[in-house]
Amino acid sequence: MARREVIVLLFLIYAVALVSANKFTVGDEHGWNPNVNYTIWAEKHKPFYVGDWLVFYYQSGQADVIQVDEVGYNKCDASNPISNYSKGRSYAFQLNHTKNYYFICSYGYCYGGMKLAIKAQALPPPSPPPKAHKSDAFSIVRSSFVGSIAGAFGLVVAFWLF
């Protein structure tokens, strides 16, 4: 592997560790199928954040996943899809923007409730670190020191590779 590829790989590993997207199986154990209340499912799992993944599992040839606008969602109308996925038995969709997302099944099951509305929110800011008591001071210094050493090691490796 070339030095630049190693650096990119190290950076990606570091970035993945910092980002914490969630993966949601739409419908949980029921999957993307008729006779599931997806409004209740969404309420149970919210909030949804930018970067989260929705994974739709369905029966091949018996369902699809159509992303529509709010009008298409309310009317169960797939004639103007934003995206359409019907291949295979699963579909993974990442929530990339802060907005409302709407999905329906165009096989006629939408009228029975096979539709999903999700609001993706921006990630909240990280929580401030807990206030330390005098007895915790050593553990905080130790963890900060270990983190600094790990970060410095990463920088040394990066510079060494150039």
TrEMBL record:
Keyword flag Coiled coil: no
Superkingdom of the source species: Eukaryota
Signal peptide: 1-21
PROSITE patterns: PHYTOCYANIN
Transmembrane segments: 139-161
Its biological purpose: May act as a carbohydrate transporter.
Biological source species: Rhynchospora breviuscula
Entry protein name: Phytocyanin domain-containing protein
Residues of the Phytocyanin domain: 22-122
Keyword list, A-Z: Disulfide bond, Glycoprotein, Membrane, Signal, Transmembrane, Transmembrane helix
